[in-house]
């Protein structure tokens, strides 16, 4: 079976500086996978290559059987690749439902033809409200994003990504900046996401990683150090030395 997302010998160099080296990676259909590594490990570079923000120096990126290495960001989204960012990129003074509705309308090809809020379109509104209801945000639909607690803002980002109907969802530090008392809700939402979506989270919160992921890839100095189950990751002495310390020994 083809991977949902795959890289083959993926490399990125800036002059003499190599920041990604021969990365072979597979995200299986429906996977719950985490990418971890210390600061400067190359995680952001890797994800930016996956999404088309950064062109690799060499290697391949595939969604299913299709080579998307040379495709732009919009084309990758249309092929089912969705992403949230480490720092939220929401329209803060716009309502929650209109933030989500714009993504749905963009997917349907009507976003830029509208001279009124995306949510004015009935089908777009109904789908957007259904997504918000699934994530427990229906009561906040008409509020401006800026008025929400930060944890809920991260959930709005996930709703926007789901509005694009991705086959593969990349979540860049979904719990970043979220108070501990709210982070459990992030995990509940991740656990409840459709099982046919392959999910890769890039996260520093190791408690969230070990509770969510079925498989973990450890990146260091631009290369894969180790990949395995959470138990295998916690037991590997090299991973502990490089990243985990003694917290999960």
Record the SSE blueprint.
Layout: E1 5-14, E2 17-27, E3 32-36, H1 43-51, E4 58-63, E5 66-67, H2 73-78, E6 81-84, H3 96-108, H4 122-134, H5 150-163, E7 168-172, H6 180-192, E8 198-202, H7 206-212, E9 215-220, E10 223-228, H8 230-235, H9 237-244
Parallel strand pairs: 3-8, 3-9, 6-7, 7-8
Antiparallel strand pairs: 1-2, 1-4, 4-5, 9-10
Helix pairs in contact: 3-4, 3-5, 4-5, 5-6
Structure report:
There is one protein chain. With about 250 residues, the chain is of the alpha/beta class. The chain has a domain at about 5-85 and about 165-180 and about 195-245: P-loop containing nucleotide triphosphate hydrolases (Rossmann fold, 3-Layer(aba) Sandwich). The chain contains nine helices and ten strands. A six-stranded mixed β-sheet has the order 6-7-8-3-9-10, with helices on both faces. A four-stranded antiparallel β-sheet has the order 2-1-4-5, with helices on one face. Helix 3 (about 95-110) packs across helix 4 (about 120-135) and helix 4 (about 120-135) packs across helix 5 (about 150-165). It is globular, with a radius of gyration of 18 Å.
């Amino acid at each position: 079976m083809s991977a949902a997302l795959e890289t083959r010998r993926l490399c990125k160099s800036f002059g003499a500086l190599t920041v990604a080296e021969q990365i072979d990676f597979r995200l299986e259909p429906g996977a719950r996978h985490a990418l971890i590594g210390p600061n400067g490990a190359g995680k952001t570079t890797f994800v930016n290559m996956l999404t088309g923000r950064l062109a690799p120096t060499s290697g391949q990126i595939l969604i299913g059987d299709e080579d998307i290495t040379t495709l732009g960001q919009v084309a990758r989204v249309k092929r089912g690749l969705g992403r949230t960012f480490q720092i939220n990129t929401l329209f803060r003074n716009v309502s929650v439902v209109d933030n989500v509705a714009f993504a749905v309308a963009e997917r349907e090809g009507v976003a830029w033809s509208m001279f009124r809020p995306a949510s004015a379109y009935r089908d777009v509104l109904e789908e957007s409200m259904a997504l918000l209801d699934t994530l427990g945000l229906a009561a906040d639909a008409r509020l401006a994003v800026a008025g929400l607690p930060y944890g809920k803002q991260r959930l709005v980002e996930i709703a926007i990504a789901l509005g694009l109907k991705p086959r593969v969802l990349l979540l860049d530090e979904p719990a970043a900046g979220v108070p501990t008392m709210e982070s459990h809700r992030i995990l509940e939402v991740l656990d409840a996401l459709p099982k046919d979506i392959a999910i890769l989270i890039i996260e520093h919160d190791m408690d969230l990683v070990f509770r969510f992921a079925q498989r973990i890839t450890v990146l260091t100095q631009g290369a894969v150090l180790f990949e395995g189950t959470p138990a295998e990751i916690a037991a590997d002495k090299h991973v502990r030395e490089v990243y985990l310390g003694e917290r999960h020994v």
